[in-house]
Amino acid sequence: MSIEKEIKRVTTKTLALLKKNRVKISALTAYDFITAKLLDEAGIDVILVGDSLSNVFQGNETTLSVTMDEMIYHTKAVAKGVHRAMIVVDMPFMSYQLNVDEAFRNAGRIMKETPAGVVKLEGGERIAETINKITKYGLPVMGHIGLMPQSIHSYGGYRERGKTNEEAKEIIKDAKVIEEAGAFALVLEKIPAKLAKEITASVTIPTIGIGAGVDCDGQILVTPDMLGLNTDFHPRFVRYYAELAEEINKAVKSYIEDVKNNDFPSEKESY
Ligand code: KIV
Predict the structure, then answer these.
(1) 247, pLDDT greater than 80
(2) Statement: residue 4 has pLDDT above 80
(3) 147: Cβ–Cβ under 8 A, 6 or more apart, which residues?
(4) Distance CA 234, CA 170 (A)
(5) Under a CB-based contact definition with an 8 Å cutoff, are residues 211 and 187 in contact?
């Protein structure tokens, strides 16, 4: 039996085992019960309740405005549909930057108020102390470096990170510091494939890439992007596995036509 079939519930230990056995980790985002249930039933390893919900669920330009209460609300809905996958929750902007105690309190809120067991924080060296405190008290942390959407205003755009030697060195250092601080896994966003390969080989914790090439230990995409629902956003790292925006458009047009022509409901569909 393959390792994956034996897994009843994906834990931090499972991800370490997958890396050790060179089995890739699959990860996608979810913000609601139905999507989470479908992803879990399909066998996804990790479901991230990403702060990308600010963009793809709430329609905002950036991830900055999403709140702790909103992350908790969506995580509760997601968790009801999940039996096997690991649920990871993004700590929203300003929930962990203020100070270490505030960060620990908010990570604790996620653990107390939802069934999720992992939080994700953006940042390298600057949040090492925070990761250390949260993990020391038994709450697993996934790191996130490279392009960090919560820092979008300082970058001035969503361009690839780590292209210059200086930036690449900083990202490598961040990866090592985060591992030492206690993170059990690391998201690498929008960095050169070569750099992601180097980081993946130099840390013992699993790396999960998004726009970071094929050599990471796993891959993550934002679900509405890969399902072709969010057609306004199509960077080159997003592959469409379905064209759901078109399908929905066709379905809704058919429904409208049937309603207008008295073709819906039929006798069979009536009481
Ligand atoms: O919020 C999110 O969806 C993320 C992924 C892009 C990794 O952090």
Answers:
(1) yes
(2) no
(3) 155, 158, 159, 160, 161, 189, 190, 191, 211
(4) 28
(5) no
Let me know if 189 is a catalytic residue: yes
User: Mean per-residue pLDDT for 42-58?
Assistant: 98
Measured N-to-C along each axis, helices 68-79 and 33-42 cross at an angle, to the nearest 10 degrees, of 50
Cα 60 from Cα 205, distance rounded (Å): 33
Residues 6+ away with beta carbon under 8 Å from 264: 255, 258
Cβ-contact 51, 62 below 8 angstroms: no
For 93-121, write each residue's pLDDT tens digit: 999 999 999 999 999 999 999 999 999 99
Structural contact between residues 22 and 61, judged by C-beta atoms closer than 8 angstroms: no
Please state, as a whole number, how many other Cβ atoms lie within 10 Å of the Cβ of residue 193.
Answer: 14
Provide, for the chain, the percentages of residues in helix, strand and coil under a 3-state DSSP scheme, each rounded to the nearest 5. Answer: 45, 15, 40
> Mutation test of ligand 1: which of 44, 144, 188 has the most ligand atoms closer than 8 Å to its C-beta?
144
- DSSP lists the bridge partners of residue 46 as 27, 86
Encoded tokens for 266: 């039929």
Q: How far is the CA of 132 from the centre of ligand 1 (A)?
A: 22
Closest-CA residue, ligand 1 atom 1, reads 50
d(CA 176, CA 181): 9
CB within 8 Å of 100: residues ≥ 6 apart: 129, 130, 133
Estimate to the nearest angstrom the gap between the alpha carbon of 167 and the chain centroid: 23
